[in-house]
Amino acid sequence: MKRNYKSVSSLLIVLLFLLILFVTFSTTSVEARKHQAKKSKAHKHKKDNNKSSGKSPGPSPAPLPPYSSQSDSFDVFSFGAKGDGVCDDSKALLAAWQAACKVNGAKVEIPAEFKFLINPITLQGPCMPNLVLQIDGTLLAPPKVDSWQKSSLFQWINFKWVQNFTIQGTGVVDGQGSNWWSTSNIYTIQKKSKHIPDMKPTALRFYSSYDVTVRNIKIIDSPQCHLKFDSSKRIKVDNITISSPENSPNTDGIHLQNSQDVEIHHSNIGSGDDCVSIQTGCSNVHVHHINCGPGHGISLGGLGKDKTVACVSNIIIENISIQNTLYGARIKTWQGGIGSVKNVSFSDIQVSDVKVPIMIDQYYCDKNSFCKNQSGSIAISGIKFDKIIGTYLVQPVHLACSREIPCTDVDLVNIQLNPSPGFRGFKQSLCWNSYGKSEGPLVPSNIDYCLRRVDGPMRRIARSHEHMCLAKMV
After folding, report:
1. What integer pLDDT is reported at residue 462 of this predicted model?
2. Cα distances (Å, whole numbers) of residue 418 to 187, 299, 425, 438
3. CA 26 centroid distance within chain
4. Are the C-beta atoms of 318 and 350 separated by less than 8 Å?
5. How far apart are alpha carbons 91 and 295 in whole angstroms?
6. How many CB atoms lie within 10 A of CB 252?
7. Active site members
8. 149: CB partners within 8 A, 6+ apart
9. How far apart are CA 315 and CA 380, in angstroms?
10. Least crowded by CB within 10 Å, which of 170, 198, 442, 450?
């Protein structure tokens, strides 16, 4: 009995020992798995942290520019513009231009409902084709005259060497020119500063540019000329508005010089000077469907100042409405000039309260100059005034041609001009040394006796002075 008890006790001890070994082994195994799991999780978290922090064997990529190379839209806000009308946004506009210039079909955007103060700037090409400047907001010129550097007085925004380029939009280009128009303001600035403004800036100027379109925008209150094309070709201006007060001096609407193949149409222009001014070196110009006034009408010239050579040819001006202007259809040249004006047509022009609707003035002298009599003049030939109808305030027709070189082949056709209710002038037309023909109906009737009949010797005199222009074309 006692022996059996000992055997059972030994067996229990062995089983208890085995149980302790099993529990110990299990606990160790679980702890080992937990440790391995923690180690693995920590390693994974470290890798994730390395990913999120940008740590990698190689250098991190450079940040992307505001626009990738694939974008064709360049908003000036993305280049640092403030758009508050106070801070200078010139650098932002220039940076946007330079970036867009490298992209075919790119668009520089001036967003609506914002004002951008732009100091005098040159936006230069050549650029990739079909570049667009989209003006939906307002561009503001510096308002204070004494803030302009003397070197920047020729123009405010200058487009140089651009091709296949368009300006468009619903926005405004505001020259803020009122301080430039006041003689007293200029005099005060001259007294206070060594910087004496000897000229006034044009708002928008194109130089040596080709295949340019300007459409839909509004240009207002330029210090001087609003829109100028110089030495440019294949120009289209469509559906724009130009506006400055009647008493703003020398604020031509559109000014053309040494430019060819130009079309200006369906626009409203009112200023303190010519609605459209066509200067030397211009040919193949078509101006039509324009509302002009106030201002000085549509003019060729003044040409030949200081005995310079002036050549203008192949100009068509038609379907024009002119209201409350000094002149209507006008050609003006200085005494002593050299060259020719030929093949010019003014037709289908409605005038209302225009002082002198039809004018050729070869004794032109602006009010700030002393003009002495000089020999020689620009030859004028092949000029047609056709279907000019409406009312005048001073004189219906004024043709004052050079004493030495007559105007030849001048046609007056279907001219019907009646005095305005406020008429204070001459019903008699003036035709001095002008040759051509007239065709009815003609009102007033004395227009029929105004022109002399042209003959061979007179044509030869006129043509002998065209050689300078022919030489320039070769």
Report:
1. 62
2. 43, 22, 12, 17
3. 88
4. no
5. 35
6. 27
7. 273, 296
8. 120, 195
9. 13
10. 198
Is the pLDDT confidence value at 56 over 50? Answer: no
Q: Which of 437, 312, 428 is nearest to 379 (CA)?
A: 312
pLDDT above 90: residue 299: yes
Q: Which two tokens stand for residue 13?
A: 């001890």
Q: What is the pLDDT of residues 9-32, one digit of tens each?
A: 565 565 555 555 454 444 434 343
Distance separating alpha carbons of residues 331 and 148, to the nearest angstrom: 34
**Residue the block writes with tokens 């280049």:** 79
Better-scored residue on pLDDT, 34 or 304: 304
Residue 369 corresponds to which amino acid? Answer: S
CB 363 within 8 A of CB 331: no
Residue 42's pLDDT is what? 35
Instruction: Quote the pLDDT of residue 180.
Output: 93
Q: How far apart are CA 230 and CA 417, in angstroms?
A: 35
Q: How much of the chain, in percent, has pLDDT values that exceed 70?
A: 77
The pTM assigned to this predicted structure is: 0.82
Two tokens at 422?
């406020």
- Residue 383 has phi, psi (to 5 degrees) of -110, 130
Average pLDDT over residues 52-58: 36
CA distance 360 to 289: 22
Joined tokens for residue 348:
């289908």
Phi, psi angle pair for 124, to nearest 5°: -110, 145
Question: Token pair of 325, please?
Answer: 């202007």
Distance CA 181, CA 469 (A): 36
Rounded Cα distance, 109 and 140, in Å? 15
Q: What is the pLDDT of residues 74-117, one digit of tens each?
A: 999 999 999 999 999 999 999 999 999 999 999 999 999 999 99
